[in-house]
Design brief:
Layout: E1 2-3, H1 4-12, E2 29-31, E3 37-44, E4 48-51, E5 61-64, E6 73-80, H2 94-109, E7 116-120, H3 121-125, E8 144-146, H4 155-171, E9 181-183, H5 221-237
Parallel strand pairs: 7-8
Antiparallel strand pairs: 1-6, 2-3, 3-6, 4-5, 7-9
């Protein structure tokens, strides 16, 4: 999470205070020295970080914006590219277990209360726990814990994430500052695996309709919503 005011100044420059402009977005993608990609995902201007877990004993966060984009914080997921070589084995669901392990560690670091672990970016890069915040208040509810999020991730993720953040800050000066924070963790994005479905959107199992990002048919909130609308229309035509 960053100051939306600063993001507006970076993106709009002299027009940052214009009443005709909404809160500014951004999109960044970089490659680290190891060749691993690091990129922003689902940037939410003037938004809020929210819980998005669906399994007991895990914690996963996501970002959102209300229509007016009027909240003081900007937020974006910072994702590190993962390949099947990073998994412990070649089981078809080893990627899911990789994700669950991160979300379990996040939950435990949040004191097993669904509190989100929070750390200032500069502290994360310097491997030191955050003990107090600056000008940015985490928007996540029901609460947060100031800590060191390094133990959540394998070394290769931490190394890529830190290098990627610093490259982003070079490309977009003030992308993060001494106040910017990281809220752990978002271990989900668009699914690289597609669940098969028929022309009527139904799977090979009756009444099961794979739709949206999780099923591999969308690449964002809007395309997922549209896929849901198209599926609803298919079901209605069936009646």
């Amino acid at each position: 999470e960053q100051s939306q005011k600063i993001i507006n100044e970076i993106q709009y420059k002299g027009d940052a205070l214009s009443p005709h402009l909404k809160a500014a977005p951004y999109k960044l993608a970089v490659k680290t020295s190891s060749g691993r990609g690091v990129y922003t995902f689902c940037m939410c201007p003037g938004g809020q970080v929210v819980p998005s877990m669906n399994e007991e004993g895990t914690l996963c966060v996501n970002g959102m914006s209300y229509y007016d984009r009027g909240l003081p914080n900007a937020n974006s997921a910072i994702l590190v590219n993962i390949t099947t070589d990073d998994f412990k084995n070649d089981h078809p669901l080893s990627g899911i277990e990789f994700q669950r392990e991160i979300e379990r560690k996040t939950y435990e670091l949040g004191q097993s209360k669904n509190y989100a672990p929070v750390q200032k970016v500069v502290d994360y890069i310097n491997n030191q726990a955050t003990t107090e915040l600056g000008d940015i208040t985490p928007s996540y509810e029901p609460g947060y814990v100031l800590t060191d999020i390094n133990p959540i991730f394998p070394d290769f993720i931490n190394e890529a994430l830190k290098e990627g953040l610093q490259i982003m800050n070079e490309r977009m000066p003030r992308f993060y500052d001494e106040n910017s924070i990281l809220t752990a963790s978002e271990a989900r994005s668009s699914a690289p695996v597609r669940l098969t479905r028929q022309e009527n959107f139904q799977s090979n199992y009756q009444y099961i309709y794979p739709i949206g990002e999780g099923a591999g048919y969308a690449g964002g909130i809007m395309s997922a919503a549209l896929d849901g609308i198209l599926c609803a229309e298919k079901i209605l035509r069936g009646y």
